[in-house]
Design a protein that fits this description.
Outer membrane lipoprotein wza fold like; single chain; six-stranded mixed beta sheet; 3 domains; wza like fold; alpha+beta
Length: 342
């Protein structure tokens, strides 16, 4: 009986390997949930400012101009589009630049400069982006405000933030001002203010590239947040008790959690295991009986552990007494064999 049980436990440890999971001792779980700041982020080189020909200018963008015969007015100077979308230039005056491409703005400037120059040929260059800010918060390596600098997908914007941290959860939450339209996601909703569309995408979907439709284009003003991963716990008669990050998983099965805890101890009572689940609004937990012995034998449906669940595997008193007796017999036999040599 003991041999069969130990063999089953070893098979369990091999069958349910989940290398993507990270084991965390309960005492090591940080209480501080402030966004992680990459200490190296301030030393990263600034990206080269480039814009595609179809880039649409907006408030906050800074421009440099080259105008033949007007070098003194424009050389080594930059001009910012104000929050109204207007731009003020020497000899040109105030014009509305937001919504134009650089080529369209050059045409507009040439038309204005035609009053003072015979054949103006203005060249507009984007000096720095400022109109396409998005906020990226939570479990990314470099949270903060980033400029889209043109069309960017959700995956590309996450790359701008240095990618996801190892403790990132399974959801990416997105908020968009309704002025930019509703999020093109199946679960998109209007928030309580009536001004924003909210929705979420599963991390696994984006990273696996299985559903390109959810790798949506990100718009200026969007907010992207990635919560930290929840934990489930294994305690009692397991090899390495502790907490385990769910990561991109919404839940883990009881057998997966046992495997992450590196299997059961030889004195475990798997048929008397329990899931201890929190009760909303209460400090108590409800108990759910789980017969791990049957599950390990391939009988019955595995149980799914939700965030903050505790899988408790008690110790078998009979097995403990049996192994103590066996150890005593082995110790006594070894001692008699040694004594017999003399």
């Amino acid at each position: 009986m003991h041999k069969n049980f130990i063999a089953s436990a070893l098979m369990l440890g091999i069958a349910f390997v989940a290398p993507a999971q990270q084991r965390v001792n309960p005492s090591d779980v940080p209480a501080d949930t402030r966004p992680y700041v990459n200490p190296q982020s301030d030393t990263q080189p600034a990206p080269v400012t480039t814009a595609s020909s179809d880039y649409v200018l907006g408030p906050g963008d800074q421009l440099s101009l080259v105008v033949p015969d007007l070098d003194e007015e424009f050389a080594d100077k930059t001009f910012r589009i104000d929050m109204s979308g207007d731009l003020s230039l020497p000899h040109v005056g105030r014009l509305h630049a937001a919504g134009l491409t650089t080529a369209a703005l050059e045409t507009e400037i040439d038309a204005r400069l035609g009053r003072v120059l015979k054949n103006p040929q203005a060249v507009v260059t984007l000096a720095s982006f400022g109109s396409q800010a998005v906020s990226i918060l939570g479990a990314v390596n470099s949270p903060g405000i980033r400029q889209l600098e043109g069309r960017k997908t959700l995956f590309e914007v996450l790359s701008l933030a240095g990618g996801l941290r190892p403790d990132a959860g399974y959801l990416i939450n997105i908020t968009r001002n309704l002025q930019n339209g509703r999020l093109p996601l199946p679960d998109a909703q209007i928030d309580s203010s009536g001004q924003c569309s909210t929705g979420s995408v599963k991390v696994k979907t984006i990273m696996d590239g299985r559903d390109t439709a959810e790798n949506i284009l990100i718009f200026p003003g969007d907010t992207i947040s990635i919560p930290k991963a929840d934990l489930v716990y294994a305690v009692g008669s397991v090899v390495k008790p502790g907490g385990f990050l769910l990561n991109e998983h919404e839940s883990l099965s009881a057998l997966q959690v046992v495997s992450l805890a590196e299997g059961l101890q030889k004195t475990a009572a798997p048929d008397k295991a329990k899931i201890l689940r929190s009760v909303p609004g209460s400090t108590t937990r409800t108990e759910i009986a789980v017969n791990l012995k049957q599950l390990m034998a391939g009988k019955g449906e595995d149980f799914q552990l939700k965030p903050d669940d505790i899988l408790f595997i008690p110790t078998s008193a009979a097995k403990t007494a049996g192994y103590r007796t066996l150890d005593s017999i082995i110790s006594m036999t070894t001692g008699m064999a040694v004594y017999g040599r003399y």
